[in-house]
């Protein structure tokens, strides 16, 4: 929960008002932000506990909006819970069903969203400009073309993530949603939070580099690969998370 408040803090410029959402898996169920709740002031009652499988089953059905809402309501662990899960519950369920993904953070960082509205931004998803970007955000970012929020976006994310895994043989740590925002995935809260924070820093660096009008010198595939597979970088990655061990997941 502290992690969610941190994500929502105005000075972090990741979300405003009720933007953004977080989730954490807990076995065959997960906690997700309730619709309309503001992350910076959220408390335990601002999350809804939802069964994972019934939400995943909705991907295979063509339902009208009203039926989707009803199915979401029915997927709540506590049927008397007055709050509705976020409209983005589908994408959270899908991402939380990936191997080694326990926490999902979705935000709309201003600096990154500026870049994600530029034509051809997809090209930058495979760029890495500095070593810590590789360590915390992985060797590349998963690009997701624009789709309406809700089920259409969740389906687009599913398609892009499957393609990323097929091409690279690993689950992405960072996703860019065209004209929309950022998603980071982690085995725990600190890992997902570190990826968010580093992805935002990387966006600032990319924007700064592009502003010079000269082509940025990106790391080569060999350089990226070397950092990504170096054992001491994995050690450093763990140390970076551990410095943030005071941040807990949304379910705690
Ligand atoms: Zn969003």
Q: Nutshell version of this structure?
A:
This protein has helices spanning 2-8, 52-57, 65-74, 89-96, 110-116, 131-137, 151-168, 189-211, 221-229, 231-242, and strands at residues 21-26, 29-33, 47-51, 103-107, 142-144, 174-177, 181-186. It has 252 residues and is α+β, with helices and mostly antiparallel strands.
Structure, explained:
The protein has 252 residues and is of the alpha+beta class. The chain has one domain (2-242): Class II aldolase/adducin N-terminal domain (L-fuculose-1-phosphate Aldolase, 3-Layer(aba) Sandwich). The protein is 42% helix and 13% strand. Strands 3-2-1-4-7-6-5 form a 7-stranded mixed β-sheet. Helix 4 (89-96) packs parallel to helix 7 and helix 6 (131-137) runs antiparallel to helix 8. Bound molecules: zinc ion. The site of zinc ion (ZN) has 4 residues, from loops. Zinc ion binds next to loops.
CATH class descriptor name: Alpha Beta
The strand count comes to 7
Fourth-level CATH superfamily: Class II aldolase/adducin N-terminal domain
Strand order of the largest sheet: 3-2-1-4-7-6-5
Helix content: 40-55%
Which fold name is given in CATH as the topology? L-fuculose-1-phosphate Aldolase
| N- to C-terminal distance | 6 Å
Estimated structural class: alpha+beta
> Strand-residue fraction?
5-15%
* Overall average pLDDT: 87
Tell me the number of structural domains. Answer: 1
Q: Tell me the series of helices and strands, N- to C-terminal.
A: HEEEHHHEHHEHEEHHH
CATH architecture: 3-Layer(aba) Sandwich
Distinct compounds present: zinc ion
Largest sheet: 7 strands, mixed
């Amino acid at each position: 929960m502290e992690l969610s408040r941190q994500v929502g803090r105005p000075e972090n410029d990741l979300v405003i008002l009720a933007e953004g959402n977080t989730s954490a898996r807990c076995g065959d169920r997960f906690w997700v932000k309730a619709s309309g709740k503001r992350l910076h002031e959220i408390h335990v009652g601002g999350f809804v506990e939802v069964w994972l499988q019934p939400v995943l089953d909705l991907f295979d059905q063509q339902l009208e909006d009203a039926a989707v809402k009803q199915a979401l309501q029915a997927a709540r662990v506590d049927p008397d819970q007055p709050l509705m899960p976020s409209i983005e519950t589908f994408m959270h369920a899908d991402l939380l069903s990936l191997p080694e993904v326990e926490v999902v953070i979705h935000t709309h960082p201003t600096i990154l969203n500026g870049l994600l509205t530029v034509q051809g931004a997809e090209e930058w998803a495979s760029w890495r400009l500095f070593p810590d970007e590789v360590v915390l955000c992985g060797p590349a970012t998963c690009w997701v073309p624009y789709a309406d929020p809700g089920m259409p976006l969740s389906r687009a994310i599913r398609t892009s993530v499957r393609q990323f895994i097929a091409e690279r043989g690993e689950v992405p740590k960072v996703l860019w949603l065209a004209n929309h925002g950022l998603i980071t995935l982690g085995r725990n809260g600190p890992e997902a939070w570190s990826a968010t924070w580093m992805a935002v820093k990387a966006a600032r660096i990319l924007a700064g580099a592009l502003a010079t009008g000269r082509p940025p010198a990106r790391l080569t595939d060999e350089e990226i690969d070397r950092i990504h597979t170096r054992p001491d970088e994995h050690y450093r990655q763990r140390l970076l998370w551990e410095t943030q061990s005071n941040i807990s997941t949304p379910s705690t």
